[in-house]
Amino acid sequence: MKLSRSDKGALVAFMLPAILMMLMFFVIPVIYVVAVSFMKWNGISAPAFNDIRNFALLFKDKAFTRSVINNVIWALVAGFIQVPLAMVMAILLSNKPKGWKFFRTVYFFPQVISGIALATLWRAIYSADNGLLNGLLRVIGLGDLARDWLGDIHTAFPSVLIYWVFYVGYYMVIMMADISTIDSSYYEAATIDGASRFQQAIYITIPLIKKTSLLTCVTLASVMGLRQFEQVYMLTNGQPANTTSTIVLYMYKKMQDANYGMASASAVILIIVGVAFIVTIRKIFEGREHD
Amino acid sequence: MKKLQRLMAVVLSAGLLLTACGGGAQTPAQGGGSQAAEAASGSAGGEAAPAQEGEIVINFPCIWVGTDSKAAYMAKLVEEFNAENAGSIRVEIEEQTDYQAYRDKIRTTITTGDAPDLCILDTTFDIRAYAESGKFMDLTPYLNDGWGADFTDGALDAWSVDGNTFILPFESAIFPLVYNKEILAEAGWDHFPATYDEFFEMAEDVKAAGYNVMGQMAGDNAWSSMLWYSLIVEAIGGKDVYANGLEDPAFVEAAEVLKRMYDYTFDGAVSATASDVNGHFIGRDTAVYLNGPWWIANLYKEDNAVDGELLADVCDVASNPTYAGGKGTSDGLVTTVQGFLAAAKQDDPAKEAAVVKFLQYISDPERVSEWALDSGAMFFIKYTPSPDTNDISKKFTELANNAGYTVLHVNGAFPTAFSTEFPAAVSALVLDQVDAQGFVDQLQTAIDNAQ
Amino acid sequence: MTKEANMTHPAVKVLLGVLKWILIVFFAVYTLFPLIWLVISSLKTNFEFLAGSPFALPAVPQWQNYVNALAVAGLGRMLLNSVFVGVVATLFNVIVASMSAYCISRFRFAGREKIFVLFTAGILVPLNALMVPYFVIINRLGLYNTYGGMILLYCAIGIPISTFLIRGLMDSIPMEVEEAAYIDGCGFFGRFFHVILPLSRTGIVTAATFEFLTCWNEFVFANLIISSEKLRTIQVGIRYFTNQFSTDYVSMYAAIVISIIPSILGYIFFQEQIISGMTSGAVKG
């Protein structure tokens, strides 16, 4: 859009509130975080310049590298399993089966349940002691598989990840709204051509939401995956043996240690990893456009 | 490199400028009553009461509120103090119930120079660095003026910096063992083991009788396992075990004993939390329980009675067993400072006096005695226990009075990084990811990284 | 589209239909289960909760837990605070974000790309790392312990994500629509209010829902920058039953149930408005 001179003033006026808030609550604080990431500082004594030692320590710490890997896995699972699941449900409910309004409401519920409650419930489900999952396995004759799901080095992280993957309500609602804006004549024509619902989804719905709500959801879900903190903090506190740790949890623990240098350095790494991730996702979606 | 350093200096000075100018006395968090209360009453439609002319308001974010056992008496203390000093001093409590969030808030406000007038610290704070920081009130002159005599022997010295006290050790805790007599009897034991060898014999018998021996947990903050580790470390290393940090071989040996204990706990201890440990003991399927005096109240709760029989009726108290070849003796006791009181440095002498007056008020031996009775908590104040104290509490006090020496639990003896890393280290140990030496090394690395 | 569709075997059709219902019901059970469990747990005694099976029913429903939650913790006031802060912060947030999203989406100006990268990076900043600077900023502005402080902070921390969501939608509105209005003599503001804003309702509603949920669930800063009980929000309230040593779980669960009810009712009540807000935008084609 071309800008007239008066528009330029309007543009500045429109951008100003957001820019001011960004400066105050993101740019300046992040400059502070970057500065502290090169410091040795316990929050109470005078900070001392520490070169890049905080970063060196981070990459020497297995708990941190594991956290980065976990976050990347989490973001991928969120973007490429959770969101597609949400999409499937959005398409199913968009066909308005019986009771679809009820289901749409119910799927959204977990969004408003406090994380503490979800964490205690899932601890109880995964518990080795009298957990629901082990009970179910025993009932169907797979008792050999019963274990301390959150206390086993191999199953802890998948368990944390899997329970959360199926809470798709928020993304589903976003995509349902988008799907409902698709011109119904497309589907009518396809139906006359004899296309099944499945084919209509593949050839009409998905291409039409790909660059809008699907991209939005994939990005959003990946970001949530990269910023993951509360779930792990309450469910496992990153254990056993740091196998379920995430970057933000790692950072939070460093803050508890009053090790502000390493805490800030891990925040800086998260921002770098995250921006790279988002840029890649956008590239993937924009690249496909030329098909 | 030079250029980078100069750039860093500029950026930092800009960033820290925000922080640095936080020292002023007019900051809301510190001003407590004045600005903050006015702002609040303006928008919230009335705080408790606006600051009156000449009234000193003391701002105290406090965790002894809500469902804490010390809450009821604390509220009474504050109310009475405010009534006695009506018009001149008012203590305003900011209720804080979530301890981790409280720590975050206190750490943040102290860092930014907005420390509240009074706050409670625990050993997860680097008490020495805080005492040396110059941000807290020097209480030495007041303590030397007679007040110090109210404190138990050695308590103040242990936490003073160059002979000066900035941060007061206030609430104490000891960690004897509580055991279920009925379960032991069923396993054929009429007494509690005096040595760890005997303890593991008992453990075999208890396990054979179908019970768990003790609750371990590596989930959450691994609190129970950390306490057990402290007890074993004391039994093996004796009273000077912390003299050389984690160098002492007792730490490696204790790790092996701790790992062995995981064979005698309930299923899923690696992911368990305090509520699992507590649930098993009050569910009466676990023989031995380890926690501080604040937990005693649960033994007397009607809620936890079975067929009208209180849990306390089937429980007794035992001291830490001794270890064959270990340096610890049977009268050694693991303790900690559960709560320090810290007062921010004040520019106004009248306010300083008011804060000290309140501190002296709540540490008065008679009031502390009532407080201890009401809450089950223990304090670093010399007081005569009330005759109405329950049996288990009496036994705790007896052990404390007869202790030959005391040793801090590991949580208090090492920097916070030790405790933060402990859950990871203990779960790695139990799951065979590291050996006992690797466990100690992991904790040492965590401490080194934080320094 | 091929004619193969006609050849879909009836058995496959039935199978797909069954699969569809398995999925729908599975997700419904999966999402309802926590809620039901929460309500049941909130009616237990602490002894039942800690020492019994976590999935057993209470022997006698303990309605007392709800009395505790309402009377002792004072949840009513906190719920109102949460609603007030959440609504006002969300309102400001989407207004500011739509304005900036409009500029970034529809105009080419110097520094546009840099600004967008800045906003994207903002989404990823772990806010826990910013406790110290945020406390200083709110305090220096004289907003410590005020609704204003909370509203400003919540509004600001949601700007990057809201801008991102709204811009995504605005990008998909064809340029021709706006150009037509431009030729008709519609100015900068006119185009924004009469053309773009109505067409981006989906994005705005998505952003608003996200922002409101963020405000509703936020705890760390609600505790950090507020000291007065009168101003506290519901997330602080449900932690009333926690103390240094233990948690009164059943009362906490009662508090959580109470805190959920208004949000669920609100969602059901506003759902039609929200959804229709989302759908009344442009028709895809």
Write the layout of secondary structure elements.
The complex is a heterotrimer of chains A (291), B (451) and C (285).
Chain A: H1 5-37, E1 39-40, E2 48-49, H2 53-60, H3 62-94, H4 100-108, H5 115-126, H6 132-139, H7 156-165, H8 169-179, H9 184-192, H10 197-226, H11 230-235, H12 247-256, H13 260-288
Antiparallel strand pairs in A: 1-2
Chain B: H1 2-20, H2 28-31, H3 33-44, E1 56-62, H4 71-84, E2 89-95, H5 99-111, E3 118-121, H6 127-132, H7 140-144, H8 155-158, E4 167-174, E5 177-180, H9 181-186, H10 196-208, E6 212-214, H11 223-237, H12 250-261, H13 274-282, E7 286-290, H14 296-299, E8 315-318, E9 332-343, H15 349-362, H16 365-375, E10 378-379, H17 391-401, E11 405-408, H18 410-413, H19 416-430, H20 436-449
Parallel strand pairs in B: 1-2, 6-7, 9-11
Antiparallel strand pairs in B: 3-9, 4-9, 4-10, 5-7, 5-8
Chain C: H1 10-41, H2 46-51, H3 64-72, H4 75-106, H5 112-124, H6 131-140, H7 147-157, H8 159-171, H9 175-183, H10 188-199, H11 201-217, H12 220-224, H13 234-237, H14 249-279
Helix pairs in contact in C: 1-14, 3-14, 4-7, 4-8, 4-11, 5-8, 8-11, 9-10, 11-14
Question: Can you describe this structure in just a few lines?
Answer:
Chain A is mainly α and 291 residues long. Chain A is built from 13 helices and 2 strands. In chain A, strands 1-2 form a two-stranded antiparallel sheet.
Describe it.
The complex is a heterotrimer of chains A (291), B (451) and C (285). With 291 residues, chain A is mainly α. Chain A is 71% helix and 1% strand. Chain A has a two-stranded antiparallel sheet. In chain A, helix 8 crosses helix 10 (197-226) and helix 10 runs antiparallel to helix 13 (260-288). The radius of gyration of chain A is 23 Å and the shape is flat. The mean pLDDT of chain A is 88. Chain B folds into two domains: 2-174 and 336-408, D-Maltodextrin-Binding Protein, domain 2 (3-Layer(aba) Sandwich); 177-318 and 414-450, Periplasmic binding protein-like II (D-Maltodextrin-Binding Protein, domain 2). In chain B, helix 4 packs antiparallel against helix 16 (365-375) and helix 11 (223-237) packs across helix 12. Chain C is an all-alpha fold. Chain C has 14 helices and no strands. Chains in contact: A-B, A-C, B-C. The interface between A and C is large, with 99 and 103 residues.
